């Protein structure tokens, strides 16, 4: 299987970039499945495959697909209580940083399958790109956290070879 | 409660242009078909863990709520919604000011936890993925409808 067609590599490239972002308030940066462990601010990223479509055929054994994923950031910030005050704009500042970063996203796809600790950038220019501006939606508070969600569709070209 | 609104303004520009060019009598069937596809993918994701989403079935009430909404659309065979309670799921398609909107509702109280997760539980993202898949697939639906309309006229 071509490295550009592996969702594992797409997730690795996006997650590594996402947890390296600089976000106002220095929230805990997590990836899908990791629980929030601190009593302050956190962002949890998820990558969901939403589809693949054929965009070209080079020969009987070489196809190019356009892959699409949805990059999601769930933002958590401690909710105010009777004892503790919270700046209600803090979560907005985090959301703004994420919207900005997501909307400009353009990353060369990396291969994590050989050595996950030392991924190599693929030789052919497979680029993960944001498709349009990021969307933002506030969510209802849950278990002591204010919440918001930032999403952006991301596309890339993947090779399929026999 | 989770509520999903599908309208042509929210879909991408290319799809919006295609929908706007549809003859009036085809807009409602097109929106219903897209809404049906969204609900189909949502319930499949919840029930089977398809599309990479986590399988989330305990009592089956939440997934049945979405199926109840599917049945109300009147598109395709009615799915098994026997585990839903009255009012759990609802689908409404309406047209005003030249815009056709589908409102899909699941009133099961823990629905937002299944979809968005919590600080300690992974989000299901069943609706988010289904909506994105629909956005990417709607162009095909609209194109097929236009073709069949012109061929039949």
Strands ordered across the widest β-sheet of chain B:
1-3-2
Strands of chain B, count: 3
Total beta strands of chain A: 9
Overall 3D shape of chain A: elongated
Counted by DSSP, the helix tally of chain A is 2
Largest sheet of chain B: 3 strands, antiparallel
User: How would you describe the shape of chain B?
Assistant: globular
Low-confidence stretches of chain A: none
Order of helices and strands of chain A: HEEEHEEEEEE
Find the structural class of chain B using helix and strand composition: alpha+beta
- Report the major sheet of chain A: 7 strands, mixed
Instruction: Please give the radius of gyration of chain A in angstroms.
Output: 18 Å
Give start-end ranges of low-pLDDT stretches of chain B.
none
Provide the structure class of chain A: alpha+beta
- Roughly what is the average pLDDT of chain B, rounded to an integer? 83
Proportion in β-strands of chain A: over 45%
End-to-end Cα distance of chain B, whole Å, is: 43 Å
Gyration radius of chain B (Cα, Å) is 16 Å
Describe this structure in words.
The complex is a heterodimer of chains A (162) and B (153). With 162 residues, chain A is α+β, with helices and mostly antiparallel strands. Chain A has two helices and nine strands; from the N terminus they run H-E-E-E-H-E-E-E-E-E-E. In chain A, the strands form two sheets. In chain A, strands 1, 2, 3, 4, 7, 8 and 9 form a seven-stranded mixed β-sheet that branches. The termini of chain A are close together. With 153 residues, chain B is an alpha+beta fold. Chain B is 52% helix and 14% strand. A three-stranded antiparallel β-sheet of chain B has the order 1-3-2, covered by helices on one side. The longest helix of chain B is centred in the last third of the chain and has 27 residues, at 126-152.
